[in-house]
Fold this protein.
Amino acid sequence: MASADDLVSRIRLCFGLSRDDFDAEVQPLLQRYASYVHLLPATADNYFSSPAGLLNLGLEVAFYSLQGTDAHIFSGRSTISARRQLEPRWRLATFIGGMCCELHRVLSHLIVTDEAGGEWPPFLAPLGDWLASRSASRYFVRWRPNATESRGLGVFALPLVVPGATLQYLAQDNSVIVPHLLSSISGQPVFRDHNVLDALVRRSLALVIDRNLQANADRYGVPQFGSHFERYLVDAMRRLASGSPSWFPNREKSRAWLGPDGLFLLWPQAAHDVQALLEADQLAGIPKAPETMLDLLLEAGVFVRQPDGASTWFVLPPELKTAAEAVKLASPAILLHGVAPPAEPLAISLACPPGATRTTQKPPPTAPAPAPAPPPGTQFSLLDATQVATSPAARTSPSPPVSQTPAPPPAVVADQAVPSPPPPPSPPPAAAPTFKLNAPMRLNPAVREALAAIVNTLNGPGSAAAAAPIAAGLFVPLVELEVRGVQPALAGRALADVRLLVHARRDGPATVTADFRGEPTIGLVVAPACIDGFDLASFEPAAHEEP
């Protein structure tokens, strides 16, 4: 710990505690973490590969994660008094999450032995305690070959670093802090809830690793440079697969296509979506080129090559006429595990040679019998033709030819009244206005697609509408965004960035409560100017909209 005195001093200042309180509450956590990881390196020959690399990595990520909590509000839906009680617990939990974010490496990537050949049991005791019990003056590290990253193992080492009393303190008066902490350490998402703690830890970890690689000149030119972004790339693809409609397999204009020969992603279109999502997360050092992402994911075994060694494949989905370039995942479960509803594979194979085209051979349509021309001056509408063509009488009882109808005798015709011509058909009803989203292109793609689907429900029956116009704009309930895989906080920020959120104020909440289907509902109000089909004159001007 002596080598990290400067960083520990910065951590104490960031906590804002007195020296006595810091020594009583935080210093024991630092000592236990240092005793567990000792002088172990974080990687064999990549970032933080020097002695005490894992110790420095954990402390730096913990510091930047703690520093990031100053710009975020936890438990935003709670009262002010409740937030005042929970805020210190959230900050401590975020610090612990950053410190223990790479703890799984001790359990999965290396083996420690002493001079006598005894092997350290990392599930049972910290490394410092085990060395003291064996009076060892040195130890040796052997890296496991082809070790896979298993972040969930970090949960089993957590009790050796964080005492149970600390976890009990974090769980007091709430039921979310500890689950969010364990979710961040294990790498498992918290469904239907935005994990601010994990977002801060991931962003800080990317920043710390990127700075370490740039500061160490020995790492430049090494093929493993940037390989730590594998987890972020896979996580971004999983988030898109579960939350973006354009990533659900086998849909129109989808990025993903699932067939009997595997799961394919159109490339580089999928890479651009991943890059946009990671840039929104503000992660440092994210690869900018699709080729770099492809090389990293091929090296990690997420994508597979063709038998001839080519990096990309060519696929021919049903909606395309020519083959498109794509990448193939090693297993569809990498993206589709846990995605509901499950995707059904196509019946046809997708892989094809480069330049292949789809030849569509359809039987020529049978030409319908020409309808008799109406007499001159007769009004005829498309609605009448549809009613005649679809009526049962027209299908079952065709009219006899005109030539077969016997003409009446001339005397009878003279005595009969001349029938009046039939009344002209009534004009078809006016079509209802069509509502369509017309938002700026810089709007977040996931928010755009979800909002477009919600606006489209206005064109159907009123009972199926997922939004309702109010005096200020279109009211969109938060639950309608969530069922379409978009977090309300993300939607609010994205709409506010393009000035489409009517109630976005710096001194007030972005959400409003309105009557929706007879019940008070929390939602967002979207500016009516971005929706085609609305009469803007019927809406009140948003005088209180954020400038």
Observations:
- The first strand starts at residue 110 and ends at 114.
